[in-house]
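Q: Here's a chain of 144 amino acids. Please give me its 3D structure as tokens.
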Amino acid sequence: MTSGSSTSGSDPVILDEYTLEDGTRVVDVDTDGDGEVDLSALDTDGDGTFETQVEDTDGDGRIDLIATDADGDGYIDSVAGDLDGDGRFDAAVFDVDGDGEVDAVVDLHSGAVDYDGDGVADDYIDVSGFDCSTQDDSSSADLV
């Protein structure tokens, strides 16, 4: 990854690096050469590794994907995504035990949880307090 501007559009370019008030280090990256932030990587615990990635995968200026390595082993433990581009997160996928296999898929609209991957709800959770919006109401160009 390089800093500055990219003319080819193929190499990721670091657009900004900063630290939030809580100590989280953020690196904003342009992945497609359009000069806009497409990915923000977050180091939430100050250990020098990025535990969370926030991405605008389709270039519409809204967050489409959030991926987190909660246990610091270098592998993604949870992902939430806007699958249909309507500006709301639709589903979250979890690898709870770190074995690389999906342990649960949660429908973030209905609260349906599929533990065994058969596409049928095995349980329901309350998602009423979960803000599924991918919209950022601030005027900032950063995703975070």
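Q: Can you summarize the key feature?
A: The first strand starts at residue 2 and ends at 3.
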